[in-house]
Amino acid sequence: VRKIPVMGEVGEEWASHAELRLEGVRVPRENLLGERGRGFAIAQERLGPGRIHHCMRWVGIAQRALELTCAHAARRELAPGKPLALRQAVQHLIAESQAEVHAARLMVLDAAEKVEKQGAEQARVEISVIKYFVAGVLQRVLDRAIQVHGGLGMSDDTPLAYFYRHERAARIYDGADEVHKTVVARALLRPYGVEVSL
Q1: Angle between helix 88-118 and helix 124-149 axes, rounded to 10 deg
Q2: In sequence order, which ranges of the chain are alpha helices (DSSP H)?
Q3: Domains of the chain
């Protein structure tokens, strides 16, 4: 029906979503993928690896934002010979971002390894953890990067504003943070006799 505009963008590239209308669609038996009525289950099987892919991309974007932050802090002088990077507050923002990017990267690698060795169903908790954790890391790292860049970070003269406009979707698409946190809590509480429903 249309490309859905997303936060001021026309719905292109990785922020793209479409609104579809299907009317009178019939799929001949010989064209079915899997058993009739199991399409949603098949789609669900692909979500885990897809979420890992999203998280890998988000780690890369966060890493790029951190690199831009370090470069800007090193070259932006508050006074001759006094770069922004000498400010302890800026150093702390950089250190916090590095710790979170590193943790996110290791968590994604761990989840991907479990999927590879045991399958997506066995890695369901790890996938849910990285989905909300890495999305949060991306949000915080980009926020710090924009803070260090000041007004420049709000402009489209760096990719930070573009990343920031689209990172918010990371906490919604493919399952909102709250859904993934419930999946994790349900798995952890089940051995204690607590049944958590979605």
Answers
A1: 160
A2: 39-75, 88-118, 124-149, 151-154, 160-167, 177-189
A3: 47-192 (1.20.140.10)
